[in-house]
């Protein structure tokens, strides 16, 4: 009996290995994971250079991990098992109260390259970015243009009350940012959003790293105040909120493996005093390749996992939002919005007052030169806290 059990155990074990090996060979490699919203590692090229510098070994490990058969199912199974063991964390993602999940640590750019995920940051890199922002403001002041800088917080910063995780490192980082930007027009939205979230308002997605449309609204109010335009702020009650999706799973959910977490809802805010048909959004893939649509939203993305890209149609090389009908067309002030993806959901509110041009921080050669050459009246930089510590682009935009 014991011998039979041993044989059966070995047979099952070998059978699973054979089945997975055959599936690995048969199933065609995927280049993109919709679940994780990222490109997957394909079979790397083997040559002397990649072999001896270690590149090949890193990529081949990533290849086997990314192309593992039924990977999404196994990731979900691991997430559930971690939850069942009361660990409350999987793949570096924390499981908190009220359905919130948050990345606990981030890869940091230290001036030479990227570190493994950590709770800390490089003061040297941040100091260089702060110096660039200060230099940019000085150049724009000399041109007579108004400038402001926003660094949207991470979920672990704004929703710290939802997690049983020490907040000391988060607070230290935010205080370092405040101190480093004290001499520029820095808009600190963390206290505002944190108070709103702790009060029960839906200002940050629970499964994604972005603020919601309501969080973007409060950020818009802070920006308008910084520009001295508080009298022009559209009151919250002057917006109709349209629920366009109740099945949004964001990037944090994709990373976590917590497949049982409930989805988020996405709302569009429609100003009752403005006709969105009078606005045109144009996305530029290059200077000669562009597409346009009416209003601020590309609803085709609501049928995909990347529903957040329905705001302005997602990131592109350049995006313009201009009033092309009704009163005020061609006469409104111009705002250059230098941004990461947080700027997408903020733009529809700003477009009520400005003709906008949006460009990615990573694509900017010189903000001050572009602002001067194209006659912008206002410049707003929106670059979230995670990007501040994990990229190098901001240090070169002045």
Keywords:
alpha/beta; 3-stranded antiparallel β-sheet; 8-stranded mixed β-sheet; 398 residues; single chain; 3 domains; 13 helices; globular
How would you describe this structure to a colleague?
This protein has 398 residues and is an alpha/beta fold. The protein folds into 3 domains: 28 residues; 38 residues, no CATH class; 274 residues, no CATH class. It contains 13 helices and 15 strands. The strands form 4 sheets. Strands 7-6-15-13-14-12-10-11 form an 8-stranded mixed beta sheet, with helices on both faces. The chain has a 3-stranded antiparallel beta sheet with strand order 3-4-5. Strands 1-2 form a two-stranded antiparallel sheet. A hairpin with a 5-residue loop joins strand 10 and strand 11. Helix 9 crosses helix 11. The longest helix has 25 residues. The protein is globular. The mean pLDDT is 87.
Could you give the order of strands across the largest sheet?
Answer: 7-6-15-13-14-12-10-11
Give the helix tally: 13
Helix vs. strand class = alpha/beta
- Report how far the terminal alpha carbons are from each other: 77 Å
**Number of beta strands:** 15
Q: Enumerate the spans where pLDDT stays under 50 for 5 or more consecutive residues.
A: none
What is the total domain count?
Answer: 3
**SSE pattern, N- to C-terminal:** HEEHHHEEEHEHHEHHEHEEEEEHEHEH
| Percentage of residues assigned to helices | 25-40%
Q: Average the pLDDT over all residues and give the rounded result.
A: 87
For the largest beta-sheet, the strand count, sense and barrel status come to: 8 strands, mixed
Whole-angstrom Rg: 24 Å
Q: How big a fraction of the residues is strand?
A: 15-25%
Oligomer: single chain
**So what's the overall shape?**
globular
């Amino acid at each position: 009996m014991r011998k039979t059990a041993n044989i059966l155990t070995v047979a099952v074990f070998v059978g699973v290995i054979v089945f997975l090996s055959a599936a690995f060979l048969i199933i065609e490699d995927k280049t993109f994971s919709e679940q994780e919203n990222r490109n997957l590692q394909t079979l790397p090229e083997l040559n002397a250079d990649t072999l001896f510098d270690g590149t090949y070994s890193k990529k081949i490990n990533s290849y086997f991990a990314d192309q593992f058969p039924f990977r999404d199912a196994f990731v979900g199974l691991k997430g559930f098992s971690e939850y069942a063991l009361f660990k409350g964390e999987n793949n570096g993602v924390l499981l908190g109260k009220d359905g919130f999940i948050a990345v606990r640590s981030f890869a940091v750019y230290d001036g030479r390259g990227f570190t493994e995920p950590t709770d800390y940051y490089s003061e040297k890199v941040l100091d260089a970015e702060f110096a660039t922002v200060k230099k940019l403001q000085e150049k724009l002041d000399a041109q007579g243009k108004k400038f402001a800088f926003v660094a949207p917080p991470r979920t672990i910063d704004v929703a710290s009350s939802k997690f049983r995780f020490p907040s000391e490192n988060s607070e230290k980082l935010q205080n370092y940012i405040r101190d480093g930007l004290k001499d520029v027009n820095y808009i600190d939205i963390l206290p505002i959003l944190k108070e709103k979230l702790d009060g029960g308002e839906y200002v940050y997605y629970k499964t994604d790293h972005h603020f919601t449309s309501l969080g973007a609204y409060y950020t818009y109010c802070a920006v308008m105040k910084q520009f001295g335009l508080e009298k022009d702020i559209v009151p919250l009650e002057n917006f109709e909120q349209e629920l366009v999706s109740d099945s949004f799973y964001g990037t944090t959910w994709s990373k976590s493996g917590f497949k049982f977490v409930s989805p988020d809802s996405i709302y569009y805010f429609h100003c009752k005093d403005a006709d969105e048909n009078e606005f045109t959004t144009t996305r530029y893939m290059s200077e000669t390749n562009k597409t346009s649509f009416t209003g601020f939203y590309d609803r085709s993305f609501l049928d995909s996992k990347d529903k957040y890209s329905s705001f302005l149609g997602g990131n592109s090389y350049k995006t313009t939002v201009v009033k092309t009908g009704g009163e005020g067309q061609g006469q409104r002030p111009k705002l250059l919005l230098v941004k990461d993806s947080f700027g997408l959901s903020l733009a529809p509110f700003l477009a009520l007052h400005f003709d906008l041009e949006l460009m990615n921080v990573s694509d900017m050669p010189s903000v001050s030169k572009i602002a001067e050459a194209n006659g912008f009246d206002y410049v707003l930089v929106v670059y979230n806290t995670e990007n501040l510590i994990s990229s190098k682009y901001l240090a070169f935009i002045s």
